[in-house]
Amino acid sequence: MTTTTAPGVRFVRPSTIQAIARRELSAYFNSPIAYLAITVFLVVTGVLFFVASGFFGAGEASLRPLFEWIPMIFVFFIPALSMRLFSEEKRSGTFELLVTYPLTDGEVVLGKFMGSFYFLLVTLALTLPYPVLLEVLGSPDWGPIVGGYVGLALVGAAYLAIGLMTSTWTTNQIVSFILALLFSSFFFFIDRMLGAVWEGTQTVFNYLSFNYHFATIAKGVLDTRDVLYFLSVTAAALLVAAYTLKSRNWK
After folding, report:
1. Cys-Cys with 213: which of 47, 86, 178, 226 at CB 3.0–4.6 Å?
2. How far apart are CA 196 and CA 141, in angstroms?
3. What is the pLDDT of residues 60-79, one digit of tens each?
């Protein structure tokens, strides 16, 4: 049953959101593209960690090089994951079937977001052999490792929300991918590019940068300002996505 406090006011239902999330997660793993994406992600991160960063010659039990690379990989990887969330359903016509069910736009958006976020967590979980290897080879500092994974989850959630948002804007997956890639690149590189041009505004660009906020968390320092920043970006993108879906009723 839908809970209401006033006529026309509806709240999202956790059970409905989880049902949509399970449907979305199943859709990922029912496609060979998901397994290909995971494989490519693990191969790329493995090569960068063990080869490019000189892991075996570094003489240090640290995942810092991995945490430096993954947020950049997310700039390309996550738009590829999220581009189909709404674009494909709109193109194939299954979205119109989905909205015939007694679902709110917020439930659909949150459900699809959670399903893709669960998929991302599975992907990140497959990198856990790296810290296990560090424990075997040395005595790593687990504070930065735990902080790094928490930071990756927050960064990934923000990127996913942005990708989901752009997916509601178009029926073309490629267009959705390009838009998400542009937004993701903006938030990742803004402090390095614009901050270098206008040094007087470096503080502002640092605040907008995903990389800047993630770097603090990856050190094992869980600052509430950094956490709130990522949650705010995620919430804002999901709200825009929900209002984009709602706008179809105004046309």
Report:
1. 226
2. 33
3. 667 788 888 899 899 999 99
